[in-house]
Amino acid sequence: MFNPWFIWSAISHTARLSTALQILIFLPLTLATLSTQAFLLLSLLLCVHSLIHGTMILLWGSEALSVLQVPMHPFLLLLCFNIFSSTPNPWLVTAADWWGKALTFSGPLFITMEGLSSLLVVQKLGQEGKRLVGEGEVYQFGLLIASAMAYVASAWWIVLSYPAAASSPLSSTLLGVALTAFLFLTFIGFVLRRTNIIESSGLALFIAYNVWLCGFDQKSFTDPASSYAPLLPNTQPHFQALVNFVINTLPKPVLIALLYRLTILQLASKILPTIGSDSWESEEGVDDGWNDRPVMLDHSSQIWWRWMNIFFTLVIWSVELLVSSEDDAVTKEWKID
């Protein structure tokens, strides 16, 4: 007989996953089939719903809310389609335009939050890795292999992205300075025994990811409507058209950046509540049901803000290396390796 708690946990987690997938599908669908204003209006409605949902979780705290919110996104999508099926209300169009401007100006803030969350997650991975090292040599060997693979993957990613990311003398200089600063901080952290290869390799992947995004500009993207195929009444063509606009409506770097931002903010939201109680203590956060909502990412991925994000994250990491305390004997032994 199945455990009721296990069944309910599976249902609640499935509900959360479905709401995230609905956002990733409904927003490109609205952009492809209607207009940018409809896309912005749906994004605004999702944001308002997210604020209401988060407030109810804060006051109520029941995981039933994750199940109850599942039909809300299809309802908002149908509402948006109904509004733009004819001439929309000028007030709604104005609200959508102002929302688009707000998202554009808040882009650097979300990129900064993404950098801080990435640093927080890689530090958590480093702490968990140090804990596993003390449980046996098998874990130590496996983590060394995984870290080496991360270093190689990040180096390959940077080399692959270099022609596009370093297209100007300034950008190539920034890339060289960023890599030099990363190597310098890594060696300093090893000497001071305040970092390890798991944390360092995670930051290497983060830098490679941002360098890759810096290689794209707005001119490399096509019109979203040009990749949309009309939905046919048959089931199979309908599914094929659905997959087509999900994959091709938004540029792949934008979709990947959206997925990364959702994931990294979600992980950071689980880590932050554990810091205040006891450093890296393994306990659940107070808001287990919080779900992030995506923001509008511009086509260029705000390239220069990406460069600033790399250096901002490295500065924060350097400050953390200087102010963190000495590690115990197990940690020291691991960092020497």
UniProtKB/TrEMBL annotation:
Coiled coil: none annotated. Signal peptide: none annotated. GO terms for biological process: endoplasmic reticulum inheritance; septin ring assembly. It holds the Pfam family ICE2. The chain crosses the membrane at residues 20-52, 64-85, 138-158, 170-191, 203-221, 303-323. InterPro entries: Ice2. Keywords: Membrane, Transmembrane, Transmembrane helix. The keyword Phosphoprotein does not apply. It comes from the Eukaryota. One of its GO terms (cellular component) is endoplasmic reticulum membrane. This is ICE2-domain-containing protein. It comes from Crucibulum laeve.
